[in-house]
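ok so i was messing around last nite and threw this chain in just to see what happens. nothing serious, just curious
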Amino acid sequence: MLTRCQRPLCQTDFLVDNEGLLHPFPAMKRSRWPLIPVFLLLIGLGGASWYFSSVIIRFKTRTIVEDQVHRLILSPAQFGLGAGEDYSVEAGDVTLRGWYFEGKPGRCGVILHHGHKGTRIGALKYAPLFRDRGCHLLLPDARYHGESSGDFGSYGYLEQQDMQALIAFFAEKTGLPRGKIGLLGESMGAAIVVLTAAREEGLAFVAADSAYSDLPTILREGAIRLYAKPILVLFYPALMLAEWRSGLPLGELSIEAAARSIRMPLFVSHSLQDNETIPEHSRRIFAASPSERKVLHMSDFGARHGKSIDTDFKWYQKHMDDFLDRHVPGFGK
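result:
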């Protein structure tokens, strides 16, 4: 008969028989059931992080028609423009499509860039700022947006290279030197044109409306606004997955850092009532630029994100005209 060893030198995991011989004590089987909730939690967190990484780089965009309905815009004629000429530009692995509107020969040219999830339709409202100056206009769809190709959006990381291809195309098509070509963008488009201006010397000006200062900050602020602070548990894993899936260091994308290289005339605008991208983003970009020809305008009449020009066009037109007349003299005249 086996009994547990009672001698002081015996270990409790051995049994002793009637003859004093020791035998290993049968090991107790540990239940694996407590590990299952942990395993399921890890699977859930991984799946949620994957989903939010898709929200970051493979977000749903609008078609041209959907954007027309969204903005109640039927055609460019609403902004005093004729029928736009369709164009396409090959930029690396993507084809960029958009509209070209011819102005007066030799005057000026402006590329107008839409915001996140939108199309060239969203940039039409800025066209009247330059129409009466006789400027040629180029309104592209960003990669992964509208009719342009692309597998994902990168918030300016790849789009700045696309813009350089568009500038080259625009300059050749119009015969304009870069000193007569300006850039204007809204929201994501504003970030893209600032990033581009840091790479392109000699442009006439760059105008940024409602820009974000860096990608991680705006994504984090947006996540908190939509889902509350607990979402940050998923935010950083999602951003890392988005970087892995895109092959890009998206967490390093800083428009504020790019602004430190901008010495050309710089126009920055934002609404003080913007709760989607807080005004501090534009203040950082403005402060970072060493340009001696820069202006910052904050509207204070209740405009939502990127809606200052929609809310009070005359206010916007006045500030843009003052900026161009003072800092880009002769532009379009």
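not much to say yet. DSSP finds eleven helices and eleven strands in the chain.
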